[in-house]
Amino acid sequence: MRKRIVAFGEVMMRLQVPGHALLSQANTLQYSFSGTGVNVASAMTKLGHDGFLVTKLPDNPLGDSAVVSLQHLGIERDFISRGGKYLGMYFLENGFGQRASRVTYSNRLESSFNTASLSDYDLGLIAEKADIIHFCGITLAMADNVRESMKVLARKVKEKGGTVCFDCNYRPSLWEGGYAAAKPHYEEMLSLADIVMMNEKDAMYILGMKSKSPHRDGQLRELVPEVAKKYNIRSIAGTHRSINSDTTHTLRGYLYKGQTFHFSDNLSFSVYDRIGSGDAYTSGILHGELTGFSPEKTVLFAAVSGMLACTVVGDTPLATEMEILSAMEGKMEDIMR
Amino acid sequence: MRKRIVAFGEVMMRLQVPGHALLSQANTLQYSFSGTGVNVASAMTKLGHDGFLVTKLPDNPLGDSAVVSLQHLGIERDFISRGGKYLGMYFLENGFGQRASRVTYSNRLESSFNTASLSDYDLGLIAEKADIIHFCGITLAMADNVRESMKVLARKVKEKGGTVCFDCNYRPSLWEGGYAAAKPHYEEMLSLADIVMMNEKDAMYILGMKSKSPHRDGQLRELVPEVAKKYNIRSIAGTHRSINSDTTHTLRGYLYKGQTFHFSDNLSFSVYDRIGSGDAYTSGILHGELTGFSPEKTVLFAAVSGMLACTVVGDTPLATEMEILSAMEGKMEDIMR
Amino acid sequence: MRKRIVAFGEVMMRLQVPGHALLSQANTLQYSFSGTGVNVASAMTKLGHDGFLVTKLPDNPLGDSAVVSLQHLGIERDFISRGGKYLGMYFLENGFGQRASRVTYSNRLESSFNTASLSDYDLGLIAEKADIIHFCGITLAMADNVRESMKVLARKVKEKGGTVCFDCNYRPSLWEGGYAAAKPHYEEMLSLADIVMMNEKDAMYILGMKSKSPHRDGQLRELVPEVAKKYNIRSIAGTHRSINSDTTHTLRGYLYKGQTFHFSDNLSFSVYDRIGSGDAYTSGILHGELTGFSPEKTVLFAAVSGMLACTVVGDTPLATEMEILSAMEGKMEDIMR
Amino acid sequence: MRKRIVAFGEVMMRLQVPGHALLSQANTLQYSFSGTGVNVASAMTKLGHDGFLVTKLPDNPLGDSAVVSLQHLGIERDFISRGGKYLGMYFLENGFGQRASRVTYSNRLESSFNTASLSDYDLGLIAEKADIIHFCGITLAMADNVRESMKVLARKVKEKGGTVCFDCNYRPSLWEGGYAAAKPHYEEMLSLADIVMMNEKDAMYILGMKSKSPHRDGQLRELVPEVAKKYNIRSIAGTHRSINSDTTHTLRGYLYKGQTFHFSDNLSFSVYDRIGSGDAYTSGILHGELTGFSPEKTVLFAAVSGMLACTVVGDTPLATEMEILSAMEGKMEDIMR
Amino acid sequence: MRKRIVAFGEVMMRLQVPGHALLSQANTLQYSFSGTGVNVASAMTKLGHDGFLVTKLPDNPLGDSAVVSLQHLGIERDFISRGGKYLGMYFLENGFGQRASRVTYSNRLESSFNTASLSDYDLGLIAEKADIIHFCGITLAMADNVRESMKVLARKVKEKGGTVCFDCNYRPSLWEGGYAAAKPHYEEMLSLADIVMMNEKDAMYILGMKSKSPHRDGQLRELVPEVAKKYNIRSIAGTHRSINSDTTHTLRGYLYKGQTFHFSDNLSFSVYDRIGSGDAYTSGILHGELTGFSPEKTVLFAAVSGMLACTVVGDTPLATEMEILSAMEGKMEDIMR
Amino acid sequence: MRKRIVAFGEVMMRLQVPGHALLSQANTLQYSFSGTGVNVASAMTKLGHDGFLVTKLPDNPLGDSAVVSLQHLGIERDFISRGGKYLGMYFLENGFGQRASRVTYSNRLESSFNTASLSDYDLGLIAEKADIIHFCGITLAMADNVRESMKVLARKVKEKGGTVCFDCNYRPSLWEGGYAAAKPHYEEMLSLADIVMMNEKDAMYILGMKSKSPHRDGQLRELVPEVAKKYNIRSIAGTHRSINSDTTHTLRGYLYKGQTFHFSDNLSFSVYDRIGSGDAYTSGILHGELTGFSPEKTVLFAAVSGMLACTVVGDTPLATEMEILSAMEGKMEDIMR
Question: For the whole model, what pTM was predicted?
Fold first, then answer.
């Protein structure tokens, strides 16, 4: 049942101020390498599959360090291309309470990944190998050459019988032309996708759809089926998340499949590191689909996976199938000896 | 009023991943040395007595480091025997929220302590000196030679007029034969003991007693007097502890003495490091008994001692009598200048 | 609109045990340099003004390190005098839950600042430059020479048309003679001050005033106007703060000005580092007064400034005007990208 | 030219006191995972080949952490078996000057690797894949089951046309019966090996051979050809190493092949971390043999590889072919920009 | 005698792997902010002058952190412009012995400084204030807009009677067109400069001059007077540096002034952090010239300043005049109490 | 052969900047507790004796931390008095190469120890127990009350048959009146002492003796016998130490006893932490005298003890008798497994 999951995406260096200090107060940084593709490929490895990443990294010590970090996460290095000059980076200052976290990017568009072209990747081999290929809206925002690689790759994998997964993940700051600029690219990816991660906001803002309902639940129930129908998508999934006044988070997942909605319980939990939770949810959906879980089980598995990702340090989900299944039974233990 | 408290038990090296990372994410460990005997002997020292530990440690740098750590805690080194080859160790990964903490043991049965025999200890001198000797159910689970040392030592101390304290502390993973294997050894220790730490679960599961009550309070009130009578025990004490939904803990202590139950208030508090709280409670009971506190005062003193142990780093209780008495008055200060 | 704010006060070295360990458990300390004057001068710099500190520091590596730290905070070094032999220090052990934080002072009275005399400072130049000068009750408690410098300086600044701000900040442990010894000095400073930081307790305990009300709100409304009238003070401001059972704090600021009380909302928030919150509040009041905010805006600005100071590491407030104004609109963001 | 190198050996957890402190002075440890097999497989990966490790690791968080660490080093996880209970560990205290480093082992014989049997490994697949298989004398010292696995595996690889490499690496403390007990096992491995790492001491002490020469150079030149002839070994290589009075080390490598000795220059250099230098030398020999370097080039390549391994933190060699070739040209740069 | 020294240059963020690990081995970085201009302005502050920096920094948390760091070093913030998007960065891996240090740059040309134009700086005010202005060849290599700012600024300062200092500091990797591209810009700066830092290599390679001497001493003595004459330069200074086999460095400074050469002693010393030593030498020359030291004293003062900069952590020289003068007397103390 | 060694002296808190940074560059400190008395008592414990310290410590968290640290070192707490207000402290910045280390003291004269009087110590009990009592010239410099305690204690121990050891250890900065003020107190201590640590400089400078020899060896051989005779001292010992150009140190010990000089070899070695080496030498002499070593063996034992103390972190010697004896045989091992 072991499958090959290939993610396409950029590796970013995350440089984080330890604890809750500001950059102007500290003098050390913790670094790691992540990105949506990294997170999904790595999470699928922990869930028992073989995770691959299609990306390009500079041929210098920063690129070497990124490769070693991907190996550390269990990601196969077969589809990693080397060359170009730079690696995308961002600095993270953790917030506290009423003070938000802050992210500061370095110049990302000159990175090896964002200046790579189709010929940097062995498309034939990738399409041959991939059981699932995963793309994300962040990558789609980058540059024309990147978008071209995404679309060609999606098409090739589909031709070879692989499954295409697309996570909408719209980041306003990345699209100079706003929703209007994004829409045609999103529509093209949605037409190519078998599994889509999104919620009602993506439908309304990116695709410009209208809802009669004033509430997000109603909007979700109205718009997601329309999207599935229009773009011919097998499964659509996503979450509603809210922050409670006592700083815990509440998460509820949904999966729309076979013209039916399936919802997880409302999960409430303390959060150690919020980043990467969405990718853990995606991985849970993919694993459920690959493994033949019932939709009910899949959506709860994914939500619990998203919850557990909030209890570990770093962006990358680390839970195994056994750990997620055991947490689904809801037993909260103090110490496991 | 200064007394000599002797604890018999193993010193374990605790190797803890800093913060909330997993072993597979980190590359440093914090180490310390602890164990029930260490905790009790050290806590009694902080309460103004002289704490001793009867144990055996390897004659190598790990053993040296353990000895220095015991000295650091104020424990007298007179009864520490050196020799054998290994030190018991465990690795601790701190959980967070829905993710439990994990403990991984190294091979403990080959440790210097667990392979020691009677002749490693100067039984005569120990019995001569001890006002109280403390044993625990973890040690009882180890091996025949360890059990023999416990029983002979308890008997010798009793003969010389010392007080024997036994903490039931049943750990399921340590008894291959389960409750059946444990019962005869527990019964022998209970017959030798003057002060016993336990609650209704020990009576029901280890000793196989039955209760008519479906609730733990009723079970406690029914079974503890039976145990006291059957094994002729002067004082029995213990706690009920629960984890609240907001992650605080609630603790209530009891002391059965003179055929009467005494209960502390229900104490609710935030927890920094849960390990060692039970040993702090035990130390509070012993101190109350040694100092001639009223049973009401003793049980509250012990419960507050258990609570304060949850506010400090590490297994070992650090509060002084003055600090506990002051916390019993319930004043929560922001900063003490 | 950029003004020159001059604070008069001691620089203390803060030596803090990392995390929640006790001094007897750890072997490293984090150090920084702070004090009410440092905090106010630095906070005013962040708010767009020029902050100065009138102080004296030893001419040795500790003094050098303090100067560098003041520079780091953006404080101008023009009024820092060098000489004398020592720097005041205190050790801080962070509490947790039911265990209070502990502060241990080294011998402070021999410090360069507390043994300095009038001639160590260029009074003429300071008075010439200061738009506002800030004093505090902690400094007033130190020694006769220090008190003399305070009073002469306040008088000189007033003569030159500057504004005098006095923060009552009574610390019981610093006054050997108690309230009786403190009263005359407080009265003299109050007569010199244009802006005063205090609440009803200062009126009752230091000034010996009586209130008919049994509640602090009633006491405040009764006594503050009396103080303003008696000592001819333009603006009086302060806070009521309480610690909630879930360990969050609640803060409410008031500003009495033009014979009217203005109150902020009750703000409730999690606390990362409580020290320095009062100085952030003071800075907010001073900024509002200097900038011509309405009293309603000033008091909320100050309270939010006090709240944000609790979300950063260290004593010194770090928020800019823009950050405070944005937090006043109450938007709690997760991550700012 | 990319080859598959398979090493057979134990993974040990190295727990190192930071800096130069003793275990009894510190409270943190740095941990990593290493072993001769790990070092060789990893080094070959850096040199452009695919490195595999045949080993067994416990199925617990320690084993998980070891696997992740092997992945980090680029080692393929295909031949890693999981099960058993323990992982071998050692504690390292760095010496300084006249004070030697100290190594303290935990009980190693109960480790998953040392209790594994033939059936834990997929011998057929391993023999199919391996271009070279590497064994070492440390492993040979462990236990009968381990020795059996070594010999069977060596034979299978040989049958399939693979090359067998054996590193004598005799550790006196590991053989209870001394040289006499070791000799038959060494002789069996030598008969199976194509490439052997050893020097004159192994010939004299383990194999009991006599030399007429009083000096190690003469002994080497006399005995190594005898060994090659007697056990029918294609290539024999090794080093002479000495510590100079200014704490630098001097290293000279030899390679005996085609009935001729080839020597590297005497290399003198500063040492940062000495452990792993021998394995780097071995890897250099294997790479030279696989790549078809001349013997002269191979022996210098190996010696420089051993030298560079002394300039990096940790046991595992990290130099690439390009870095070694560039260092062979002897250019010492200050900073590479 | 306090003067105003203004340096023009970029602030770079230095991200350094702690100790001697590689980027691929570590997970933390130490960061600081430096650059030739930063180093010179800061060093002059330590020597008792007022140091300013003309630069441009992004208006984000990285820029804030850089500003705070400049304040920390005592540099006045009056001439720091804010805006643009990025900050130049480089990663540093410390070498050891035969392994060279490695520097990896991020994309520098898009930095706020390198995209700034003349209008970003208040040229009039700068020229008004500067007693000395310092430029460097690294900045000259950047971009046309940067070069224009340099030349206009140099001219303005000269017109107002200030002294222009130019440090040749040729970095081959920064000039795409090599020496030919650099020469006209260097010639223009040399014509504007009163004090120049260079040695014979700059004369031969950049300016294309020929020497009859085969040795660097002869070349220096021949070419430097020619340069001084041709470009009408008041003082030219520089160093010869060599690395000894025992890893100590030897440094000898020269100052050509009044048509005469002055040389320091050959200083040999251990090196802790080599970066910044050249800027410390420059600062020593500037201080000597400003203070009216004899040329003999100036050149020794500068050389000792360069030596002491090698004994402290970080790029920025930290020695005071007193410390340098005391080291010139050559007393090597063990501990200063 | 186990003896009781009692040292009289102050416990100082050492606050050290990690690595080689200056106080103005760092933000953390490492702290420990030391002093000549601490070092000697602790070293004697490692050598198999029982070490006691007569001192006074404040009854606050700093004092608690000091006590725990003494326990850690194995020192018995029986003679530690608690009370007073302060603990002496000093800050240490490590030098490098040509840059000396710097020590900055806090105000020491107000410390609990330096304000203690005779009645703070149980003189009778101390005199009863001490086999040897150790005093030092640093303590003698402090204050009249301290000097009185020293002299009375020395006399009492002598009366009870104990041995008095006095280490001259003259620190110029501590004696306001210079040698003249010190002389009478030194003479009184010398008359009371059985074993004295000193060299020719003490004789010439403190005692004002003249030598005909221009060299220190000649001066030593001439003056030490005179001192022994004049003050009736059984054994006098000390060292000559020099720093070599390659930063190694050379140490040679002497012992004058039975009217004969005994010298150790010249030992040359690398130094990790120089502080405490003299106290290690003293401890070696005391151990030799107590154990009945020949003078030749004693002086070499002491010198090697002093050398080994330079190879460990911290002030306090840590070598055992076995380790010193083994180092005396001069075997330099790489790694001890």
Answer: 0.90
